[in-house]
Amino acid sequence: MYDFTLPYTGNAAIGLNVVPTLYCPSGPLPTRYLDPNANVANNVTTHYYGVMGPGDLTDNAPNVVNGQTFIYRVGEGANNSAWSGHGMLSQYRDSPGSISTRRFVRFSDVTDGLTNTLMLAERSVFMPNGYQFNHDYRSWIRGNNGGSGATKNVTYPINSTFYNGSSNFNHISFGSNHTGGCNFTLGDGSVRFINQNIDLAIYKAAASMDCGEVAPLN
């Protein structure tokens, strides 16, 4: 039913549908936090997102793993539309001059290994006081259009960071109402629970598909 020749705003009627597999039973109901955009008013939201890769507020961001420094490319790092250049489900652009220009990801491009790379993640949290009206959630029909309704960067620890209402939408944390962490799907399709106290450098490295970090999640 989704018409891919139209922008997401042209598919607003599809976004009214609740798809049960897009929601965690321990999270808020899909109708709890609706999309704030008037073009998709009353569209339900989702609890599962693509992992864009390791994020940061600046491009060429360093990450030290086991004494070795790795450099990550990040587009528009300090803005709502920030995106990583190293994730399995990151941004694509036709326009030249971007780190995501003509960026296609094939299984063979995941040189760090499908079993070692985060691909999907859970975000099924209730908004704490002070954040209820910042609209962390978006319709499940949205892709990466400016601030992404379908993907997030791994920039901050699990369960730590919410939307500030102005500049960090693609950096808000993955998280859940499960005790101590949330669920992730890796590139090979396996699912595992990751503790929210995981070392941030290891966590970012696991979101990278092609930088050669040795960063086991165990």
Would you spell out the secondary-structure blueprint of this structure?
Blueprint lengths: L47 E7 L6 E5 L2 E5 L1 E2 L7 E2 L33 E5 L28 E4 L26 E6 L4 E5 L4 H8 L11
Parallel strand pairs: 1-7
Antiparallel strand pairs: 1-6, 2-3, 4-5, 6-8, 8-9
Give me a quick take on this structure.
The protein has 218 residues and is mostly beta strands.
Give an account of the 3D structure.
It contains one helix and nine strands. It is mostly beta strands and 218 residues long. The strands form three sheets. Strands 7-1-6-8-9 form a five-stranded mixed sheet. The radius of gyration is 17 Å and the shape is globular. The mean pLDDT is 93.
- How far do the termini sit from each other? 41 Å
Number of helices: 1
Helicity range: under 10%
- The number of domains is 1
Major β-sheet annotation: 5 strands, mixed
Strand content: 15-25%
User: How do the SSEs run, as a string of H and E?
Assistant: EEEEEEEEEH
- Tell me the Rg in angstroms: 17 Å
Identify the overall geometry. Answer: globular
Find the count of extended strands (DSSP E, 2+ residues).
9
Structural class: mainly beta
Strand order of the largest sheet: 7-1-6-8-9
